[in-house]
Amino acid sequence: MENSVAFTVPAWVPEGAQRYLDHTESGRSIRDIARAAGCHASTILRQIRRVEMRRDDPLVDAALQSLARSHFSPSDQQALTFAIVPPVANQPEAQNAEFEREALRVLRRLCESGAVLAVAEDMDKAVVVRDNGESGTTKTAVVDCRTAQALALNDWITCDNPGRISRYRISTSGRTALSHLIADAENRARTQNEFGMSEAPASFKPAATGKNAPNQPKVRYSTVESPLIALARRRDRDGKPFLDETLVGAGERLREDFELAQLGPQVTQNWNRFLTCGGRGDFAADSHVGQGHSGARDRVTRALSDLGPGLSDVALRCCCYLEGLELAEKRMGWSARSGKIVLRIALQRLKRHYQDQAEQDRMIG
Predict the structure, then answer these.
(1) Which residues, other chains included, contact 57 with Cβ-Cβ below 8 Å and sequence gap of 6+?
(2) 162 and 58 in contact (C-beta within 8 Å)?
(3) Which of 42, 252, 255, 296 has its CA at a distance of 20 to 30 angstroms from the CA of residue 343?
């Protein structure tokens, strides 16, 4: 009984919440929990009180209720499920990995300027929206409410005024957690690049240097806003945004697919052939494109191939690798301040590509 919580509750559930549930749902005494944990009873008492005080947060309360039903209710013992993040396999490791991927995706969006996670009562989905000032808001991500509950339980997102529609922002601990998730994702990517398989050992060798180093830009799971958002705040002579909401949305869609592809099992995808300044103009699809994470590689490949040399280059650099315009201009040998014009043309073409794809899907459907 002493270790029941550690074995039945998902590993990402914070220690304080585990002990709170062990006390309130299993009926274990505070002294018993403290004895098993090797700490003083007052430490356990403070943790339990802290969790109890957070139950005014609707997401935290829902998360604790869900965990209690799934992992502590006798009637559910025959069908224990992953209560907060939808199950992806029977192994807890796969469940935790799925949670980490979702947390990385959502926290990155919440790091953008003016971004909040909006959660409505009795809804299965939440949305991340970004304030665009006078032009309104833009939806940047859709989040399962069970994932939002997990983020709140870990204190990675906070809400000042819960209500019918609660708005959550990323917390200080959420930013710290994002940094760790980014580092873990990059370590896995480097490990897979070294070993060439998804089941590679956890440790990894330093990246190759010198003439044997692969000539490929480093994938960035950046915590800062993309160059597109900065350009969207600029105004032309008529006072209109340099990039309107639809163009930013097209670039964000490419970026989302690109990062989903990099987080998938085939993280070693080489996108260098779309960088025309590197002398790679062949747009034939790789043999493994279409496999991996939700077909994201296939969508990125089709979009970049449709843009063609030059436009695909600037889209890949600015939308996916998140290079600033000045750096992109320098690497492509363009004159100063010309990059934003080419980028806007690329985004217009990308927007048309997605519209054509949507039309084709409707005809097929």
Answers:
(1) 152, 158, 159, 162
(2) yes
(3) 296
